Amino acid sequence: MTPHILLINPNSSLATSDMMLAIAQKAAAGKLDVIVVTADRSPSMIVTPEQLTASAAQVVELGMAHGRDCAGIIVSAFGDPGLAELRRKVSVPVVGICEASMIEASQGGRRFAVATSTPDLAEAIDQRAHDLGLGHLYTGVRCTAGDPLALAADAGLLAEALAGAVEECIELDGAEAIIIGGGPLGQAAEALRTRFGRPVLGPIPCAVERALDLFDQAGTMPKAI
Q1: What is the 3-state secondary structure (H, E, C) of 173-187?
Q2: Dist CA 120 CA 115 (whole Å)
Q3: Nearest to 134 by CA among 142, 122, 126
Q4: φ, ψ for residue 178 (rounded to 5)?
Q5: What is the value of pTM for the model shown?
Q6: pLDDT for 124-157, tens place per residue?
Q7: I need a labelling partner for 115 at 20 to 30 A (CA). Which of 27, 45, 76, 79 fits?
Q8: Average pLDDT of the residues in 9-27
Q9: Average pLDDT in the 55-67 region?
Q10: For residue range 189-201, what is the model confidence (pLDDT) as tens digits?
C-alpha cells in the first residue's frame, strides 16, 4: 500500500469524513497520501462529553485495524478521544487535532483561545489545555449560540457564528491565536483563516503538519510512491 496517514473521524458522518479528508490532503501538499476511516457507533457530530468519552473505544479499534501499514494516525475529534490508549497500542506516531492545534497556537508563547460551536465540550477542551501544560497561555473557550447540529447544517451561518466567537476571543480575552475547535468545523476554519489580523487555526492542518514534523524529526518520513 502507498505510504499514508490514517485519519480517523470519530463522528459517524461520511460527509464530514470527506470534508476532513480534502482538508488533510491539501495540508499534506503531496508529501504523503491521507486515507480516512469513519466511526459507525457515534452520532453524526459529537457534541456532549458522554458522546466524546464513548467514541474513544472505536477510535482505538479503527486505529489498530487500519493503522498497521500507515506512517501515522490522526484522531480528528477535538477532544482527542482514545488518543493516549491508541498511542500505547501502535508503533506509529498518533496525533490528536486538539493537541496539535494547541501546540501550534502556543508557539512563541502566544496566548491562545478556542472558538467552537459545542458549549457542552468546553470543560473537556479546558482540560486538554491544562493536560498539555499550556494552561498559562490558554485564555479559554468562546462558543456560538444555538444548536450545534443546526449550525453545522448551514455552512455560511456556521462560519459567521464562529467569526463572532473569534472576535470575542480577540477583543475580550486578548487571544493572540485562535483555534476553531472541532473536526466537523474544518471547512469553517478554512473560511475564517485569513479574515482576522491574528492567526485563526484549523485543527486538521495543524495535525497533518505535526505528523509530518514528527516523521522529519525521527528521520522516518516515508517516500510517497
Answers
A1: CCCCEEEECCHHHHH
A2: 13
A3: 126
A4: -130, 130
A5: 0.94
A6: 999 999 999 999 999 999 999 989 999 999 999 9
A7: 27
A8: 97
A9: 95
A10: 999 999 999 999 9
